[in-house]
Specification:
Blueprint: H1 2-16, H2 19-42, H3 53-64, H4 68-86, H5 93-112, E1 120-121, E2 128-129, H6 134-153, H7 161-173, H8 177-190, H9 198-222, E3 225-231, H10 235-244, E4 251-256, E5 263-271, H11 273-285, E6 291-297, H12 307-319
Antiparallel strand pairs: 1-2, 3-5, 3-6, 4-5
Helix pairs in contact: 2-5, 2-6, 3-4, 4-5, 4-7, 6-9, 7-8, 8-9
């Protein structure tokens, strides 16, 4: 056990010296800063409770008093302890870091630019609101939070809190993780009955649902690839360009035209957006007659070369 801990520490110290560590640290810090701003400016003034740990912290700070950032940090520390006790060591350093800095970053925004400087009272309800209406606050919050979460997911990190609670629900109530997130979020939304009227609670529940949809959209957009199918008599030239210039593999099929009855070859390849643009530009430049179709693929598993790997392949090709 002690040996495993020492090995982990040595690996982590080595990892700290890499560019990837510092890049991900900056991304996580910026992502959490955006999350903290979304919470502070769009939830706190109107007491709008979304199914997040920040929402629960707003409820508790309104009932018992105290600093919002302190509540957020305290609940996240408690959840991290519960996670290690009930689930085990499944939450890495990234989750610990993001969970612990959300509270201090919320206090940072309070210190830099208090929401009272920009909030106005809703003309109907009298409730303070940065955008003047809780629905607009909700939209701004969901967009900022979902974009930050998608950015975090792209480096295999998360915003902490609710993910931990959902994992506990997943393990002990045996729901799938998506359902667990929804249940945990709904439970937190319902705590808003202690401080908000029924209308605001419903807005919070709707916001929690919309947040899940928008996160899925942003996450899919970040990971989108193009599945490109090309039918052309010059398929060999196209294949060589894809392999030698784009450094991607491709699959060749023999197809028969339904109208002409002619046999031909169809190439199928998965490309990034920039690579797809390069391919189309090359086909146009070389005046190659080709029937090309493309559709989005949100996730790719297995042998997919990263940008770093592709650069290594390009350097190897140049040396040959």
């Amino acid at each position: 056990m002690v040996k495993d801990i020492k090995t982990t520490l040595v690996d982590f110290v080595h990892y700290m010296g890499t560019f990837k560590f510092w890049k991900e640290l900056v991304i996580m810090t910026l992502g959490m800063a955006v999350t903290a701003a979304a919470v502070y400016y769009f939830l706190v003034p109107s007491k709008l409770i979304i199914g997040t740990i920040s929402g629960l912290s707003i409820v508790l700070s309104n009932i018992f008093g105290g600093n919002l950032g302190t509540w957020i940090m305290g609940i996240n520390i408690l959840l991290l302890i519960l996670a290690f006790l009930l689930i085990g060591n499944e939450f890495g350093a990234k989750t610990v870091y993001t969970a612990l800095i959300l509270g201090p970053l919320t206090n940072f925004w309070d210190w830099v630019f208090p929401w009272q400087n920009v909030a106005n009272a809703n003309p109907v309800t009298g409730t303070p609101s940065v955008m003047g209406d809780p629905w607009f606050d909700l939209c701004c919050f969901v967009l900022l939070l979902s974009a930050a979460q998608a950015l975090m997911f792209s480096i295999n990190a998360s915003t902490g809190g609710l993910d931990i609670l959902a994992k506990i629900v997943n393990k002990y109530l045996h729901f799938d993780i998506g359902t667990s997130v929804s249940i945990a979020g709904a439970m937190i939304c319902c705590t808003a009955f202690f401080i908000n009227p029924f209308r605001m609670v419903i807005i919070g529940l709707i916001g929690t649902w919309i947040n899940g949809l928008v996160v899925d959209y942003f996450t899919a957009a970040l990971g989108n690839r193009k599945r490109v199918c090309i039918v052309s008599k010059e398929h060999e030239r196209i294949r060589k360009y894809i392999v030698d210039n784009l450094h991607r593999g491709c699959t060749l099929y023999e197809v028969v035209g339904g109208y002409s009855g002619e046999k031909s070859i169809e190439l199928e390849v998965l490309l990034g957006k920039d690579e797809f643009s390069q391919l189309l530009a090359w086909l146009k430049q070389e005046q190659i007659s080709a029937f090309t179709t493309a559709n989005n693929v949100s996730e790719v598993y297995g042998l997919w070369f990263s940008t770093k790997k592709r650069k290594q392949l390009e350097e190897e090709m140049k040396r040959r």
